[in-house]
Specification:
The protein is of the alpha/beta class. The protein has 13 helices and ten strands. It has a seven-stranded mixed beta sheet, with helices on both faces. Strands 5-10-9 form a three-stranded mixed beta sheet. It starts with 12 loop residues before the first strand and ends in a 9-residue tail after the last strand. The structure holds uridine-5'-diphosphate (UDP) and manganese (II) ion.
């Protein structure tokens, strides 16, 4: 029998981006469902770090007041202005944008989708954290996901679950026709690497900060070289870059089980991949986190 003693580094930092939200918007309701599911089941005191704009901050604070009443639980909340962070991380954003944006021209518009890549520079004093999309719903005690940090190796930087659609098979079409034996773009069940999804991201900040290799990878030339090596043109922001890192430097990424980010989007099933979609989408584990991506409803 082991007892899990609380050490200094056992901080339970949770990050979430909550911007461009209007009152009565679906995003506000999604965030409320996320926050209630996180706080109500947690056996540990959560520090909730929210990346917001001015009007979304007011809404987030209002949601969290009701979460506090509903759950009667203690948690801490901290707010960060999205424009402020985008400015601090503009070197990373401009490295990534040409390769992983749907509209590479519009400078600040999708900065938020790249912030996770530089979070170690923002989260000063934190040794580890987990970031969640607001369109997730947690079905278990989040302390169990923090225990997954124990499985990280000395060079592991991030923990992410597999992408459960063939989107990277699609993006890697040219690379895959050049390298017929590659397993990049194959489903996990077939021994492949389908890429990763950034709806749930674990950060081992101390490893990230001391990795010269990682800071090197963020440079514009490195991102250009990596994208060109794999003939990779993405549109999904940070998760495109995590997917490339997962191919080039697999030890940097701990692959979580699909149960920790059970995506629900079935868009690719009806867009050319009907025959193999289920090989990607299948997740036979007991689900711990639902992710209603591409606006998909989450079951109750
Ligand atoms: N997000 C936000 N405001 C926006 C769009 C996105 O705060 O206008 C945040 C939110 O946390 C959201 C995440 O960014 O969950 C990623 O976007 P989304 O979940 O819509 O993408 P998907 O998972 O469907 O690809
Ligand atoms: Mn999402």
């Amino acid at each position: 029998k082991t007892t899990h003693s609380i050490r200094k580094q056992d901080e339970y930092n949770v990050w979430c981006i909550f911007t461009k939200v209007a009152n009565n918007s679906p995003m506000k309701r999604k965030f409320e469902r996320f926050a209630v599911s996180l706080i109500s089941q947690s056996t540990v005191v959560i520090k909730l770090h929210l990346i917001v704009d001015d009007s979304s901050k007011t809404l987030a604070h209002e949601v969290l007041r009701s979460v506090k009443k509903l759950t009667n639980k203690t948690f801490e909340e901290f707010y960060y202005n999205v424009n402020n962070l985008a400015e601090k991380l503009q070197d990373i954003i401009s490295s990534m944008q040409p390769h992983f944006s749907s509209q590479p021209g519009s400078y600040y518009s999708d900065a938020l989708f790249f912030l996770s890549l530089g979070l170690h520079r923002i989260a000063k004093g934190q040794t580890r954290a987990i970031m969640f999309d607001a369109d997730t719903r947690i079905l278990t005690d989040i302390a169990l996901l923090f225990q997954e940090f124990e499985k990280f190796g000395s060079s592991t930087l991030f923990g992410l679950a597999p992408e459960l659609s063939p989107v990277y098979r699609h993006i890697l079409y040219t690379y895959r026709s050049k390298y017929k034996n590659t397993t990049f773009g194959d489903p996990v069940d077939k021994g492949g690497f389908p890429g990763v999804n950034s709806g749930v991201i674990m950060f081992q900040f101390d490893n990230i900060r001391k990795s010269e290799q990682y800071s090197d990878l963020l440079r514009p030339e490195s991102v250009r070289n990596l994208s060109s090596k794999y003939d990779f043109k993405g549109h999904l922001g940070d998760q495109d870059f995590y997917t490339l890192i997962g191919m080039e430097h697999p030890l940097m990424i701990h692959l979580l089980g699909c149960e920790w980010n059970r995506q629900l989007c079935t868009w690719w099933k009806n867009h050319g991949y009907q025959d193999i979609f289920d090989d990607f989408f299948r997740c036979e584990k007991q689900i711990k986190i639902f992710h209603g991506n591409c606006n998909t409803a989450i079951p109750n």
